Amino acid sequence: MKNTVVRLLAALMMICLTACSSTPRPTQESRQGSLVPYELTERESALLEVLGVKDRAQIIEFQAQEGVKSVAVQVHRLRQDGAWDTETAFAFGFETSETNTISDGFFAMILGENNSIEFHVSHNGSHMSSKTDEIILEAEAIASTTSFLGNAVDLVLDQEIPVAFLVYDSDGHMPGASVEDYFEPSAFHGMDLVQAVTLTFSDEPL
Prior knowledge:
By secondary structure, the protein is of the alpha+beta class. The protein has helices spanning 2-22, 28-31, 42-51; strands at 34-37, 57-64, 70-78, 84-93, 103-111, 117-123, 126-131, 143-148, 153-154, 161-169, 193-202.
């Protein structure tokens, strides 16, 4: 079942790419260098609901300016001292040519079992996937909050862009959260599991 979900999500992303190519889009100048939460059609939303991942999935459309060569997907875990432990889930290199210098594609993530996260990047016909290890907490989390990127943001080279902020705790109290809490997570110190996902675009090839 897990493999089926992964394959269907990948297929959904391919459908999204095809739809984008045939649907009028904003000009390159207006979209160049941006990340935008992808607006699902009713059919796409229904598919995610059937798969049981609608509330656990995020799809982001990105367009990186000329010269961008790669993107790193990083997962951060908040330590008890308030600092982040960071690991790179994977990095994806963009293929461009003289006639295709804009890196236009999709990033998707699914929250999986036992606090694992699946990632997918699709660009110019290429697709790459990765999944983090499961994290087993000592006590069952009875409170949680999930915040995904909700608005378009500018894409700045070599700058971490938070796209998800996830909190789990065995205490019933849970403050509201947003992806911007990645930069100042003090309100979540001491909670059982605090994670953030960021994207970093670079002009350095892999």
